[in-house]
Amino acid sequence: MSKLKLNRIKVVLVENNRTSKELANHLGKTVSTVSRWCTNEAQPCIETLYEVSKHLKVDIRGYWFRQEQIIKKRFLIRKAFFTFLYFLSI
């Protein structure tokens, strides 16, 4: 099953020609922590996200995938799962 992507930190870094190492140094976090945010293995707290938005000079709302995108992904995952179960029962 695919991982649900909640934030767009990696996309925003690329759009602003910044690196995760640079962001980690600015925030005083480890590179591995920022990497986990970029791969959506973990999510930063809202205070950290605010600091990221100030550093990159972007609106904090631009970091999150829209709810419609998340709902669509969940629907597609469930549909694939039930299709798989259906073919197992044939």
Tally the helices: 5
What name does CATH use for the topology of the domain at 9-65?
434 Repressor (Amino-terminal Domain)
Question: Class of the domain at 9-65, according to the CATH hierarchy?
Answer: Mainly Alpha
Report the sheet-strand fraction.
under 5%
Which segments are poorly predicted (pLDDT under 50) over 5 or more consecutive residues?
A: none
Cα-to-Cα separation, first versus last residue: 22 Å
Cα radius of gyration in angstroms: 17 Å
Helix percentage range? 55-70%
Average of the residue pLDDT scores: 82
Number of beta strands? 0
Structural class based on helices, strands and sheet pairing: mainly alpha
The profile of the biggest β sheet is: none
* CATH architectural type of the domain at 9-65: Orthogonal Bundle
What's the order of the H and E elements? HHHHH
The CATH superfamily of the domain at 9-65 turns out to be lambda repressor-like DNA-binding domains
What gross morphology would you assign?
elongated
Protein name: Helix-turn-helix transcriptional regulator
Organism: Flavobacterium soyae
InterPro entries: Cro/C1-type_HTH, Lambda_DNA-bd_dom_sf
Domain HTH cro/C1-type: 9-63
